[in-house]
Amino acid sequence: MTTRNLNLKDIRPELDAVIISDDMSSDERFQNLVLRPICKLQVPLFIEVFKNYVQKHKDVFYSLTIEKRIDYIENALQKDMKLRNSLKGMVIGLFTTEEYLIYIKNSSALNKRMMSIVKNQLLGNIQLLEKPELLAAV
User: Fold this and answer.
1) Which of 2, 23, 60, 123 minimizes the number of CB atoms within 10 Å of its CB?
2) With the CA atoms of 20, 33, 120 and 43 taken in that order, what torsion angle do they form, in degrees rounded to the nearest 10?
3) What is the C-alpha separation between 138 and 34, in angstroms, rounded?
4) pTM for the full model?
5) Which residues contact 87 (CB under 8 A, 6 or more apart)?
6) Which of 54, 107, 48, 109 is closest to 76 using CA atoms?
């Protein structure tokens, strides 16, 4: 294995709740062994990218109720291809060569899984998506 591949695998966090079984589909296995650890590693970056997205869209997000913020996040990830592709690139860029070769065989289904994980990471950290000056005051 190349140094790059080893380094990429070494920086990934270990996930406690990931269960790998023989009856898993190959997509589910890829999700649990590759996508979830990479996405967990990238959470701080995802948060900053989304804050930047909100700022570029006139900070409307900050005036919304929590329910509407959830809808906003879901809608942005579903409909804004530029944002979506940027987030996907942040994950794909941390694949090993072998993982990339697996990914391209079924990228459509794996992209859905990837974006679902990213969405859940953003929703799970929604409290960190406050206006920067509000966080500084806390």
Assistant:
1) 23
2) 140
3) 35
4) 0.91
5) 46, 49, 77, 115, 118
6) 54
